[in-house]
Amino acid sequence: MSLILHFHPLASFCWKPLIALYENATPFAPVIVDLGDEQSRAAFLEISPTGKMPALRDDARDRTVLESTIVVEYLAAHYPGPVELVPADIDIALAVRQTDRFYDFYVQEPMQKIVGDRLRRQGETDPFGVEQARGQLRNSYAIIEKAMQAREWAVGDAFTMADCAASPALFYANKVEPFGDKYPAVKRYHDRLLQRAAFTRVIEEAQPYFKLFPYNNG
Ligand SMILES: N[C@@H](CCC(=O)N[C@@H](CS)C(=O)NCC(=O)O)C(=O)O
Q1: What are the pLDDT digits (tens) for 7-25?
Q2: 45 C-alpha vs ligand 1 centroid, how far in Å?
Q3: pTM
Q4: Where do the structural domains in the chain lie, given as residue ranges?
């Protein structure tokens, strides 16, 4: 098998390339990284020196690709399939990249801050930072609410890398700062993403690990 994805089934940034791989039925070998296991951690640090996942190894092309967005870009360029993850039209591609950045920086990052704080020891938490992160999520929801009024997918007329980024970002953000009734277009978009077979599969595969998620509510 040429492609090896190093990831963890619960890790939100890892869901982006997983969704991309499943969308195009791209064959790959999965390697689950356990950062709590000395051997697994040491092996992973050889591949990804920052310790951040996902990482994609492509033996056929002798490449190691880091950063979830770059992994999806790499798949789009070298292992294309029926779902055009990064459209050929440069203006649409730029909008896809911009939206992918939006979901990473302004949805995933504040969500990670809130989750990470829950895992801190007593006395080491950062309530001010968490409140700021919640405010940033609500601001992002308002931006998405406006953008998604009449849209099916994040950019253009078809599912792209931007939707790969939005899927885990909205899934986990909704767990830590629920959309409630205030953002119906965000909820509709999230529901649409949940109906994609690739995303359903990723969530199903994460089920055994959800007990480790500190905001797990079933
Ligand atoms: N910018 C990176 C972020 C990756 C990231 O934050 N990954 C998390 C999992 S969702 C991770 O590796 N956490 C392990 C750690 O920080 O020790 C990307 O897009 O790949």
Answers
A1: 999 999 999 999 999 999 9
A2: 13
A3: 0.97
A4: 3-78, 90-196
